[in-house]
Structures are given as structure tokens and as C-alpha cells.
Design brief:
The complex is a heterodimer of chains A (114) and B (113). Chain A is an all-beta fold and 114 residues long. Chain A has no helices and 11 strands. Classes of the chains: A mainly beta (114), B mainly beta (113).
């Protein structure tokens, strides 16, 4: 968890709000990821970025919009969310998306959509 | 396609006893295999991984795992569990030719004093 920070740690929003989640990694990694974690379900990969280029948009609804301005920062912009989007959103980074390197995770943002 | 199964939602052991958390996987090619642990209100922490070579992998906090290709398993073990090992454990697999890391649903480990 050390080396990857996420803000805010908790977020409550209405369905008509627009908010953003921020992730920053201090590890010099080239790949960054967004995951959704819901109770009793496997982590769901949402987006993958490699050197600021999106590698994958894993069939995520357009109400989630990622942004990677540089290799250290990753954002997830949220708008018109649904209550079922309430979950823990985890950011991760790795030296590269290739090879056998492990991913380093941030503490997550607990999102509640009312 | 790749997938991971963790057949036990919960594992309960007494402190000092051996701990095993089971994981089986499915990939079309050769796998990279990982174990992560998650404590309450925290992100996932890396424990260990299998890339190649020796089938027995040693990791953090006294954990180890054995890669068994014929059984497509990668069970996590610790010879003597501690109360502080109580947490949520995730197994993950990635095909060497793919970027996507697939996780199991997790196993909650409770170690009682």
C-alpha cells in the first residue's frame, strides 16, 4: 500500500453529482490500473494505462471516465452514477503491465451513491 | 479466458496451527500466479508470486505457496498461524500473453487465540 495514495478515502454522492477520484504513485511505475471491489465478488478490472496510454477499457459504462495526465497520476471522473456503483475503488500500479511484476495497490476510495 | 476459484469463503484456525488457503486457476497458456492480503479498510498487499522455476515459493510474513501444474492449483500455506494473519486473502492469475490480472472472490481467514 505504501507508495500509492488515493483521495478521497470516502465519498458520498448523489446520482446527479459529478466527482473525481485521484490516484498518485510514487514508485516510478509505468502502468496504472483502476479496479472496482464489491463485497463477496472478485476484483473487477476497469481500466489499464501504460505510459499514459489506455491499454484497456474493460466494458465499463461511460459514466466512468478515466484520465491519465502523466505516469504518476490517474483520475476516475464520475457522473450520473447509480446506487449499484457503490463500492471500494482501488488504484494500482506496476513497473509494466507486461511480465510477472506484481501490482502495488492504494488504500482505496469507499464510494457510496445515494 | 482465465479464471480463479477460491473454494472456501472462510477459513478458521487456532493460533499456532497450520493455515491453508486454497486456490485453483484456469488459463489457456502459462500462468503468473499471485497472492494478496487485504486488511480492513486497506488496499491489497502483495504476499508472493510464482513466475517460473521452483514450484515452492516463499513470501512475506512466513507464507509460502506451491505451484502444482497438473492440479492447476496454487494453495497458500503458513506452518503456524498468528492472530494477526486474520484478513481477506486473494489469489490472482495472469496469462503470460495477457495484461489482465484475474482475481478470485477472496477467502476470509480468522485465526482465534
Amino acid at each position: 500500500e505504501t507508495g500509492v495514495t488515493q483521495t478521497p478515502r470516502h465519498l458520498v454522492m448523489g446520482m446527479t453529482n459529478k466527482k473525481s477520484l485521484k490516484c498518485e504513485q510514487h514508485l516510478g511505475h509505468n502502468a496504472m490500473y483502476w479496479y472496482k471491489q464489491s463485497a463477496k465478488k472478485p476484483l473487477e478490472l476497469m481500466f489499464v494505462y501504460s505510459l499514459e496510454e489506455r491499454v484497456e477499457n474493460n466494458s465499463v459504462p461511460s459514466r466512468f471516465s478515466p484520465e491519465c495526465p502523466n505516469s504518476s497520476h490517474l483520475f476516475l471522473h464520475l457522473h450520473t452514477l447509480q446506487p449499484e456503483d457503490s463500492a471500494l475503488y482501488l488504484c494500482a500500479s506496476s513497473p509494466s503491465w507486461q511480465g510477472g511484476q506484481e501490482q502495488f495497490f492504494g488504500p482505496g476510495t469507499r464510494l457510496t451513491v445515494l | 479466458a482465465q479464471s480463479v476459484a477460491q473454494p472456501e469463503d472462510q477459513v478458521n484456525v487456532a493460533e499456532g496451527n497450520p493455515l491453508t488457503v486454497k486456490c485453483t486457476y484456469s488459463v489457456s497458456g502459462n500462468p503468473y500466479l499471485f497472492w494478496y492480503v487485504q486488511y480492513p479498510n486497506r488496499g491489497l498487499q502483495f504476499l508472493l508470486k510464482y513466475i517460473t522455476g521452483d514450484n515452492l515459493v516463499k513470501g512475506s510474513y512466513g507464507f509460502e505457496a506451491e505451484f502444482n501444474k497438473s492440479q492447476t492449483s496454487f494453495h497458500l500455506k503458513k506452518p503456524s498461524a498468528l492472530v494477526s494473519d486474520s484478513a481477506l486473502y486473494f489469489c490472482a492469475v495472469r496469462d503470460r500473453d495477457d495484461y489482465k490480472l484475474s482475481f478470485g472472490a477472496g477467502t476470509t481467514v480468522t485465526v482465534r487465540a
